[in-house]
Q: What sequence folds into this?
């Protein structure tokens, strides 16, 4: 089974799931300049988390929420190009795109104990994996809101972390993902070796 097939199977065919849900990706446009152009070509429903008319350079670097389809070419392209590169996080929810956009906007800027404001990059899988285990039950309820599960890659994409809440406690499962094959060096690489 390929990496893409394994991740797609984990996203849409969870073990023990007993309800219907949609799968979304929350993507960080700042991670790669290909993300927003891919979204625009996708034909899938998507929204920038920031409201209003934005300058193009800001829009390209902003977080975007997209309702995925297991069979859409965009989903395959996203997993092929972005898996293991911290392009964003995945989530399951019965809520619609607009409700999720409104929910996540609340967390774009947070305040510390002294009242200083910070941008919160929760859509970065490395940040979310560090944040969720520190949450109190109230924080978990507030952050999860209409989300039943957050599905987050590890930094190298070898594991899919499945975060969910049961009886006000964060639960966590780890699913191994087969590694992507390393491409064989092409003629350019061979020529470069001879130049050295």
A:
């Amino acid at each position: 089974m390929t990496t893409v097939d394994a991740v797609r199977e984990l996203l849409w065919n969870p073990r023990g799931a007993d309800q219907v849900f949609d799968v979304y990706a929350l993507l960080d446009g700042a991670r790669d300049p290909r993300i927003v152009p891919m979204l625009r070509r996708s034909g899938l429903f998507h929204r920038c988390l920031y409201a209003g008319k934005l300058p193009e350079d800001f829009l390209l670097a902003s977080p975007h929420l997209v309702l995925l389809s297991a069979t859409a070419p965009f989903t395959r392209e996203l997993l092929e190009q972005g898996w293991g590169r911290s392009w964003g996080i995945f989530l399951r929810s019965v809520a619609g795109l607009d409700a999720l956009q409104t929910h996540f906007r609340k967390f774009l800027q947070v305040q510390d104990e002294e009242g200083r404001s910070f941008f919160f990059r929760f859509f970065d899988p490395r940040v979310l994996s560090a944040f969720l285990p520190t949450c109190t039950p109230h924080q978990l309820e507030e952050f999860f809101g209409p989300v039943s599960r957050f599905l987050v890659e590890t930094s190298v994409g070898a594991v899919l972390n499945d975060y969910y809440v049961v009886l006000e406690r964060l639960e966590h499962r780890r699913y191994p993902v087969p590694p992507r094959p390393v491409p064989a060096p092409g003629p350019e690489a061979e020529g470069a070796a001879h130049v050295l």
Q: What stands out?
A: Residues 186-196 have pLDDT under 50 and may be disordered.
